[in-house]
Amino acid sequence: MASREIAQYPSASRRVFGVVTILFIAFYLLWTLLPLLIMFLSSFKDLLDAFQLPATGDWGGVATLFTFEPTTKHYENLFLELNFGTYLGNSLIASLGSAGISVVLGSMAAYSLSRLDFRGKNHLFFWIISTRMAPVVAVLVPLYAIFRSLDLIGTLPGLILAYTTFNLPFAIWILKGFFDNVPYAIEEASMCDGSTRLQALRMILPLVAPGIGAFLVLCVLFGWNDYLFSSIIGSGGAKTLPPATIGLVQPQNIQWGSIMAAGAVTTVPMLFLGVLIRRYLVAGLTMGAVRE
Amino acid sequence: MVEVNIQNVWKYYGKTVAVKELNLKCPENSFLAILGPSGCGKSSTLRMLAGLEHISAGDIFFGDLRVNQLPPKERDIAMVFENYALYPHKTVFENMANPLRLRNVNREEIDKRVRRAAELLQIEMLLDRKPMQLSGGQKQRTAIGRAIVREPKVFLFDEPIAHLDAKLRAHMRGELKHLQRRLETTTIYVTHDQLEAMSMADNIAVMHEGVLQQFGTPSEIYNHPANEWVAGFVGEPPMNFLNCRLERGADGVVAVHPSFRLALTDAQRRLLEEKGAEAEVRLGVRPDTIAYRAGAGSGLGIAAKVFVTEPLGGDMIVEVQLGADRITVKTKIGPSANLDEPCTIAFDAARIHLFAASNGIAYF
B253-271, pLDDT tens digit by residue? Predict the structure, then answer.
């Protein structure tokens, strides 16, 4: 279950390596967290405060970044005047909806690909993966044509369908690997206990929970961060946060404060999702019940 | 509760034949062991009984019910797997309760039955644990518990104690047999361990390469093996085989080996005549029916040399070089002998077996 303890002995190179590791991690944290910090801070700053930057090389001036009058006017602007509530809702519905559909269909498809033998199985599996090989833009135009004839342009179901087109193959691909690792015996035991195939599948679902969790995050992120589909297929009735944020960049007036606030609004739900799903990502649930 | 009847069953995997024209009957409430080495088709047979695999040809009946087309849940069986196959995310209690839950038994009844089964298996104190926190023996008891909470028509065991350590295995043999007698349920038990089959079963079906070699009680299998293969597989240490020639002398029929001549009994002679025995035979002798004495000219009929002695505490295994052949003798413990030390041995003519050299079929 837990990784095995590996004996390590002190040596000069190991000490140097340890220092380098720490430096690297520190730099990496700075690199990834600083932009987020600036975004959050700026979203609460008045525009004048936001552009109060210390001169290059003036390390003492860093404090000026943190001295400001907090204001929530950008958030008020977003939600009261710019309809960001609706866009946030659209984003949530589209990304979670697509992820949900992909989990249900994907786990069933992955299960059958993992467990059953049928003619052309490998070809089918390759075809499923290959649909992910084309870049999004390549399928956008034909998809648009199809969706228009079905009256799905500018609707949430259309957007969900578009995301699912890309999420589902991915789901099948990831989940098949997880199902492959679950011993047959557990389902067989369940069927001998008196369950149907479907009940047996439900029995082993908790064992692939780490896979489902990981994939759920990735699917939600795909929909959440998507700009292309949303701006073209969702344009009109199903605008989501990314195109709405871009909309804040107007030729005459780039609304930096609101853009920062929109960035924060876009980031926070995903942070919560990460925390929520974290415990499912811990693998090793299957250990110990089936003797290998 | 029900008689299990396997009729002309075949199992193919692609072009490979796993089970060949199997006919087998397990009487109501009896304990049948299917014994054979790995790859002999015994597990395939069990899985066909469970409904986990399709029957390629033939029929399986539970009583009067033909079960070929029934999924496992409709066959009313309970199976214990070699690797236990517990649900890792569920507690021992939930594992055992699962078959009852699937049948919509009410909560109090589930609780009662699980606790009774746990008591029987002495795992009451483990009910809240997860499989990960159990030892091998405890997991195995849980798996058995899951099978016995319900009263199924047939118990199917697929090498359930193969992975336990030797001491626990010996203990569980007794417990399983006791449990089967107590629950009075038709039981089919697959094993590669002849000791398990001999000690637990009412009947044994010995399989080899997909073919049923012999079906009989443990004593029949041991004392009257149907062919050389069964004779060699059952018994520990295994039976010795020597190439001999039958010769008719003045004193009756004699089995002739380069190192000895063994006169057969009248009853044996008649059996050989009835079956039209060939001259070339394989002589089978169980190690514990051979008399052994150390030292040259120590009085037993056949002179031989010691290859090695293996003391086992109370008994001793002596491997003896007899001309070009090496045979195993089991005797009471005595002083160890050195390499190539002379000794004498003797066969008990009444307790030997003869097999046709051409096809291994037993004459007696």
Answer: 899 999 999 999 989 999 9
